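Lay summary. Proteins are chains of building blocks that fold into shapes, and those shapes determine what they do. In this project we predict the shape from the chain. Here is one chain we studied, written as its sequence of building blocks.
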Amino acid sequence: MNEIKSIAVYCGSSKGANPIYEKSAIELSDFMVDHDIRLVNGGGSVGLMGVMADRVLERGGTAVGVIPLSLKDKEVAHLGMTELIVTPDMHSRKMTMVQYSDAFIAIPGGFGTLDELFETLTWAQLHLHSKPIGILNINGYFNALLQQLDLFIQEGFLKKEARALLYVEETPAALLERFLQHQGIEETKWA
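And here is the predicted shape, written in a compact code that computers can read:
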């Protein structure tokens, strides 16, 4: 069994059009605090990222933000984080988030959310880490993306074993259970 003490949550710098996304972000935050799991996120004060950090901190949990200097300078940094790590660029931000986390969850967001999710998946596929990765599929938000992954397999661009690196659930409890059962792969040392 894996021990999950810290989860990076990839999510939107917007709250989205449907209030269910904010409600679900709060529920995920509560779940993490209730299970003594540290939140690691992009360090922003806006959107679902800010909602989650605010809720975790309000409930006495730990929230670590990792933000590139360019975004901190644009004054979107959440200055109330338990710890705010400033990186020189986006790539360093993603690597730091991976290093600080035991697992990864994507909830609704845009390009940045997908960039973080897919880079983390790619690093797992390349054996650069063996940590569990999941999608919290709130309101079917990721259904079309999951269909696209099936097409990748069908057309020979993705192996089923690589697709299996991504867990998909509709509740935090179900996703954490999958994470706890995760069988890691042998890691290659970072270059």
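What the prediction tells us: The domain at 8-180 is CATH 3.40.50.450 (Rossmann fold).
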